[in-house]
Amino acid sequence: MRLFLTTTELIDRRIGWDKLPPVLGVAVLVGIRDALREHNLYDTCQGAPPEADPLPPSDYLTVRTANGSYNDLSAPSMGMANTRFGRNVPLTEGRSEQLPELMDPNPRLISTKLLQRRAFRPATTLNVLAAAWLQFETRDWFSHGSDPNRMLEIPRPPDDDWPEDTIKVPATAVDPTAEPGGSTFLNTETHWWDGSQIYGSNQQFQDAIRTHHDGKVCIDADGFIDIPPTLIGAAGGADGWWLGMELMGTIFMREHNAICDRLKAAYPNWDDDQLFNKARLINAALIAKIHTIEWTPAILGHPTLQIGMRANWFGLAGERVKELFGRLSAGDLLSGIPGSNTDHHTAPYSITEDFVTVYRMHPLVPDDYEFLSLTSGVEPRALTFSDIHGGANSRGVLKSQGVAECLYSLGVAHPGAVTLHNSPTFMRDFERVDEHALDMIATDILRSRERGVPRYNDFRRALRLAPATSFDEISGGDAATAAVMAEVYGGDIEKVDTMVGMFGEKLPEGFGFSDTAFRIFVLMASRRLKSDRFYTVDFTPRVYTPEGMDWIDRNDMVSVLLRHYPELEPALRGQRNAFAPWRRL
């Protein structure tokens, strides 16, 4: 194993995994992933995790708990809500920046000079549903919460049009369990891939979305989410709620209810809780499958990843072999992670601060939208993001336009490319639900510094990647941008923020985001499955039911869309991946 890891890292450094033939590239990626597992998992609890409330075994052995506890039966609090984010860099390097370093260079200046959208640059291999899906998923995985009583103040740069002297950003909520001087933060959501963007991360939220009849969640007679407005967007914060988020939530709440109908037909004597808990397991697993073998290959369109991500789910032996012969071994290489042995590798499972940073991909979100009809002869409807942001606006457009036509409109439109000079204009003066204005792009920069994510070159060194030696390397190939970047960072390339460097570096073929971000992705994408017993040792017909396993096996994003919105069939005819651009009718 040591020789394999050394060899694959050497090949990657000298040639690059993405320059190799796909089969060899997959082998090198396995080595990269295993080296990251060995060197880049750090426990911020340092062996002293919090305790989980005691529960009877019937509440967790074959069902997910509301707060994520008891996934690991030997460490019940692992991955539960309100536990610490982990790290992918050594704890000594993951230290929160303090003033004046925290504001050096000024995050608003970076937003203005390097990140704000000049002209929309599309990602032509994707549709806007891919952007909505990413936000839908990140709300499952993480949220920090903020403290409105503690403000971080970004000074207004000279000649800037911000209306006040400072941009006031609520500080990240403190970790009440942190050691003095510690740089740890709590995840308000469960760390698991458990559908908590739908089901919530506490019992109160979960109870509120349930009908308490036949296991179902609250969808009204017109097919819309039917929960109190104060709950809409509560998982992860109401500020990010927009039409794309509501579409995804609506689809998979309806999918939950469809699964309940299937289970009710097979097990007519099951009570409400039994139906709900099994449907949640099945729905969450289907979402994880869609992300693994559909969304990821769409945004990372390299031939090696087309093999690698399917191998994560089905194994290198392939889907057909698994279907005919079942698992060939308990390991994940040949038969995939689902159903393999659970393994946390070198640290207890958690979402990491570094993972949060690499998923800052706001350039995917367009400023402007065109809503189309599935019927010919109807004039398009032009709207801006502000028209579809917030619960009232989102629901209003869904009702007036129709859910299917909103899906179609996002399905044929391109998101933005994840690159410099392409972050949404509306985010530079974003009005939160509390009417407090923020530059969200500047806030992205500030958050990584505040939460102790190293700057770009140190981040790459921690991942055993070569640091950038010139601004030209991370300027998107544009000499003028390199000059501006050098000016903003005072000529010191070591100060470049991780997000800026990732947006500016050259991408592997077909990639929608950077190779630096991909290193965290290749580690954590497998880990979200491999650490979760409901995707490993308990991914069985006994736990999921035979009907549940069949539902997961036989469905994908296209089939889910067509089940609930069959009128999309002309647009989805022949569509292999729902996150690639659809046919324009």
The percent range for helix content is 40-55%
Query: If strands are numbered along the chain, what order do they take across the biggest sheet?
Result: 1-4
**What's the tally of helices?**
22
* CATH homology superfamily of the largest domain: Haem peroxidase domain superfamily, animal type
> How many structurally independent domains?
2
Strand residue percentage: 5-15%
Write the element-wise H/E pattern from the N-terminal end onward: HHEHHEEEHHHHHHHEEHHEEHHHHHHHHH
* CATH arch. level architecture of the largest domain: Orthogonal Bundle
Oligomer: single chain
Q: Between the first and last Cα atoms, what is the distance in angstroms? A: 53 Å
Number of strands: 8
- Sheet/helix structural class: mainly alpha
Main beta-sheet strand count, sense and barrel state: 2 strands, antiparallel
- What global shape is seen? globular
**Radius of gyration of CA atoms, rounded to a whole number:** 23 Å
Rounded mean pLDDT score? 95
CATH topology of the largest domain: Myeloperoxidase, subunit C
Q: Which class of the largest domain in CATH terms?
A: Mainly Alpha
**Unreliable runs, pLDDT <50, ≥5 residues?**
none
Pfam families: An_peroxidase
Cofactor: Ca(2+)
Protein name: Heme peroxidase
GO molecular function: heme binding; metal ion binding; oxidoreductase activity, acting on single donors with incorporation of molecular oxygen, incorporation of two atoms of oxygen; peroxidase activity
